[in-house]
Amino acid sequence: MTKKVSRRTFIQGSATAGVAVGASSVVINTNESWALSTEVLSSETAQSLLAMARHLYPHDFLGDQYYAQIVSDLDEQAKSDSSLAEKLENGVKELSKVIEGDRTYNISFKDQSSGLQLQNLKRIDGNDFFETVRGATMNGLYGNPRVAAFFGWEGSSVEHGGYINRGFDDIGWLPKK
């Protein structure tokens, strides 16, 4: 006998959930009303990359949907680049290793405490996986016009004649002479 679950009950009980479907996965966040769907990366990898991106460039005023877009972009690139997909999956597996003294434990990166996540990121700082995700996060956040608005950046000035005609003289926080 199967139990039917109403839409309301499902949404109430799934604050943030990962659902694996074949080779693809879906990450749903009902608190902020966004979803992340990946075709190549596993749900575990997608959620771990999201946590990693948030640690690399933490901005409390940015919702997870902006970081999720970075993971989505990496998944899109991994569709045509199997070596990237392998690098991301193996990198997340490496982040799941918790090394204490002479013992190694496997704890999913997404389930580790914030301090432990930071410790593991410092451990891999500079390797190819780390630099790939760091670059994708930096470009994905600071190259996103929706994110730029949160920082007060008005956008490109080229189409308005450059900063001499836009942006050079409109600083409101400088005292007037």
Task: Describe the model.
This protein is an alpha+beta fold and 177 residues long. It contains 7 helices and 5 strands. The protein has helices spanning 7-12, 43-56, 64-80, 82-95, 114-124, 128-142, 145-150; strands at 16-21, 24-29, 34-38, 97-100, 103-106. A 3-stranded antiparallel beta sheet has the order 1-2-3. A two-stranded antiparallel ribbon has the order 4-5. It is elongated.
Task: Give the distance, in angstroms, between the N- and C-terminal Cα atoms.
Answer: 79 Å
Average pLDDT number: 82
Order of helices and strands: HEEEHHHEEHHH
Tell how many strands the DSSP assignment holds: 5
Helices and strands in order:
Elements: H1 7-12, E1 16-21, E2 24-29, E3 34-38, H2 43-56, H3 64-80, H4 82-95, E4 97-100, E5 103-106, H5 114-124, H6 128-142, H7 145-150
Antiparallel strand pairs: 1-2, 2-3, 4-5
Offer a concise description of the structure.
Helix content is 47%, strand content 14%. With 177 residues, the protein is an alpha+beta fold.
Q: What are the key terms here?
A:
177 residues; alpha+beta; three-stranded antiparallel beta sheet; two-stranded antiparallel sheet; 7 helices; 5 strands; 47% helix
